[in-house]
Amino acid sequence: MRNTVFAFFLLLFINAGLSYGQELPNLKSVKLNKKASYKQAEPTVTKVVDYLFKTPADRKNKARNEAGRFLVDWMNGTPDYVFYLEEKETHFFNTDSDLLLMYMAALTKFSLENPAVKEKQKQALGGMNLVLPYLYQHSNKKTWTKELWQLYDAYKNGKLEQFLYP
Fold first, then answer.
1. What is this structure's pTM?
2. Mean pLDDT over residues 54-75, rounded?
3. What is the number of other CB atoms lying within 10 angstroms of the CB of residue 44?
């Protein structure tokens, strides 16, 4: 009996931890109106990016849409980071706004984890290395363009840099 009660509480604790991991912070309470507020919002941005990477792309998910809007607002206003959304890299995702959002989330994640990397090609490669495995597992591959498949194949074969920047 004692083991059963312990197992029940252990299972309950694990379940609570898993459900907490996919919760979105209260974004309405985060104001992005001053330069300093963007720096203060970085922990929330990290949680938003983690949330986006843990939830499947679904346009009907209001929380995910709110997270995407917050991320884009933060990316557009932060004075501490520069995000390059060049045609060379983004055209692979132009057919689907969810794919483009995830690329932007990957750029953000890479930049926050590697603040010393300022070169746009290195940032793009870092973002691609994060987003492509996610997209392969969580997106509808039936909608992928031929170019996106070629990009993924280059990633899978360790030739992403040569593919993007010949």
1. 0.83
2. 92
3. 19
Alpha-carbon distance values, 159 to 34, 123, 153, 162, 166 (Å): 41, 16, 8, 5, 10
Read off the pLDDT of residues 115-163 as tens digits, 9 standing for 90 and up. 999 999 999 999 999 999 999 998 888 889 999 999 999 999 999 999 9
For residue 43 the two structure tokens come to: 């922990």
Q: Which two tokens stand for residue 18?
A: 């898993």
109-132 in b/e form (b: 16+ CB < 10 A) is: bbbeeeeeeeebeebbbbbbebbb
Concatenate the DSSP letters of all residues of 102-147 into one string: HHHHHHHHHHHH-TT---HHHHHHHHHHHHHHHHHHHS-GGG--HH
